[in-house]
Amino acid sequence: MDFRADDVEYQRPNGQPLLARLYQPIGPGPFPAVLEVHGGAWTGGDRFNNVAIAESLAADGIVVMSIDFRMPPVARYPDTIADVNLGIRWLKTNAEKFGGRADLVGGLGSSSGGHMLLLSALRPNDPRYAKLPLTGSSVDASLRFAIGCWPVADPLQRYQVKKAAGQERFVIAHDKFWPSEADMAEASPTLILRRGEAVEKPPMLIMQGTADDNLTPDMADNFASAYAKAGGSVVKEIFPGLPHAFISAAPTSPGSLRALEMIKAFVHKHAS
């Protein structure tokens, strides 16, 4: 399916525009839609990180909105999560303009963006995250479905493991984004579920490669197990031998193509 890609401004904090790349299938719709949150250890990257994912979804009849968001030193937790929450509400409010529908909007995040997407999915109405106004809109940030690609589902565990291993680039990024280890624990999707907090539980797809040295080997398992124990519907797909961010690194490899097909099938299933 043909699609077009345009930049749109979805908010203007302190007079500085924040942009998103909007991928719009050409056709009558209604199309499912995905708010996409990039990775980069919460401190780097931009809306072009996951072009391969966005273009593949758009060509399959899925609207994708890949957002930029504020990062350190401009903003850190929880303000960056507020940008994601607003992005979801903006996409739901404007979905019909792009051939979609507000009730068909889900989310996808990769790496640290996966953390932010999972956290937003669990807590769409947290007042810290939902504090940014959206003129003329009353929609919330709840999601029809959520997809985590190699997500940092437990930032506290990742921080402690990388600090003990002396891997300073991870430690530095965490310290820039997170005010404290207590905040990492408070906003850890895995620990939120283990604490038994009342959360939203949209259908989840979690994807993880076994050669991922950015995350602990048990991180995807721990989150998926906690989500299922809390009553959520979750599909966990493991990709043997594949590294962190494998789709962006090699989008035409067999593993990446299999992952993309799984993502598209999951979106269509849960937006039907």
Summarize this structure as a short list of keywords or feature phrases.
single chain; 272 residues; alpha/beta; eight-stranded mixed β-sheet; 10 helices; 8 strands; 36% helix
> N-to-C terminal Cα separation, in Å?
18 Å
The radius of gyration over CA amounts to 17 Å
Instruction: Quote the average pLDDT.
Output: 97
Main β-sheet, spatial strand arrangement: 1-2-4-3-5-6-7-8
Structural class: alpha/beta
H/E element sequence: EEEHEHEHEHHHHEHEHH
Number of DSSP E strands: 8
Largest sheet features: 8 strands, mixed
Give a short summary of the structure.
The protein is an alpha/beta fold. The protein has helices at 51-58, 79-94, 112-122, 155-164, 168-177, 181-186, 189-194, 219-229, 246-249, 254-270; strands spanning 3-11, 18-25, 31-37, 63-67, 100-110, 146-149, 204-209, 234-239.
